Amino acid sequence: MWFSSTAWLLPLALAGSVQALPKGAKIGTTASHVRKGGVTYNVFEHAATGARLEYVNNSGICETTKGVNQYSGYLSVGENQNMFFCRNNPQQAPLSAWFNGGPGCSSMIGLFQEHGPCHFVNGEDTPSLNEHSWNNFANMLYIDQPIGVGFSYGDNPVNSTWTAAPYVWKFLQAFYEHFPHKSYGGHYGPGFASYILDQNNAIEAGSQKGEKVNLVALGINNGMFDSTLQEKAYITFAYNNTYRQLIDESLKDKLLEAYESECLPAVQKCQQTQTNEDCQNAGSVCGESVENPIMQAGGDFDVYDVREPSNDPNPPETYSKYIARPDIMKAIGARSDYQECADAPGQKFGATGDGQYLDIRFQLTDLT
């Protein structure tokens, strides 16, 4: 798993299966150094979880502000499972974790194209400091997950939000133990936030060993909450969009009827049974009855900006070529080719119908 924050740039590797901490486990640390592929890594091993951090510091990549430390590396929490992370750290600021969506897309998109410490202006070959970076207000932690996304590599057993959450929690345990002086302001999905709060309760009750994570806030940017809402919104958005109407009234009425008679019942069954078979079927039914007809009728358009073609050249993909350079990879300690949006992790989520049965409205209510 890869993460980045205002003071640190770390590729992170997650290895092995995630298990609860044994009741008798003592939270301890060991620190050393190891050299791999011509790169010297600082090594930290977390006794309670068995997680291992390997990172380089002050690479000078992306964040060049004086007095800001930078770390990048891998977190291993099991065998052949390596997650990349990047973190930058201003003093006296909350820690905010950022996860891009997909599922299966790298958080380096957020770091280099959205709100990270640096960006590429007008397609330049090298980055410059971003004066509007979120790093001005928080220690941003960008994490590549699940494994196989971005610079993360290895075996990936994750196929849903719920199976991904323990890996993130285990990472935070090792992270807090090694860098204990930082607070946490959370930016992530309700599934992860709920898992973190559940583990906090277990730690307080004495049934789980570990550090309580002080989850202060949850921010969601352009998020999908519930398929029963999202699928219908595809139709109304496509018809009512004032920049570019994608479907006419006749098709709109036809799709709304298909939504009520085909898509909605399939999603409701999925959310009731929560089986992979029913949820995968719901995704297929809604795709055929609602989503595909809109894509076909709308012609060539970008789903994120209907004014642009599907192959929108903006923002330029300069950053992906930059971080794939051998000298840059060596500087930040990356050990795997960069995959901006990997197919395999997303396909695993699709096979379980994760996006269909995930109704997070109730979790959001619990979190507020």
Automatic annotation (TrEMBL):
Record GO biological process: proteolysis
Question: Out of the domains of life, which is the source?
Answer: Eukaryota
Please tell me one Gene Ontology term that the record gives under cellular component.
fungal-type vacuole
Q: Which InterPro entries match?
A: AB_hydrolase_fold, Peptidase_S10
User: Which molecular function term from Gene Ontology is one that the record holds?
Assistant: serine-type carboxypeptidase activity
User: What are the boundaries of the signal sequence?
Assistant: 1-20
Q: Which UniProt keywords apply?
A: Carboxypeptidase, Glycoprotein, Hydrolase, Protease, Signal
> Which family does this protein fall into?
Belongs to the peptidase S10 family.
Name by which UniProt lists this protein: Unnamed protein product
Naturally occurring in which organism (per UniProt): Aspergillus oryzae (Yellow koji mold)
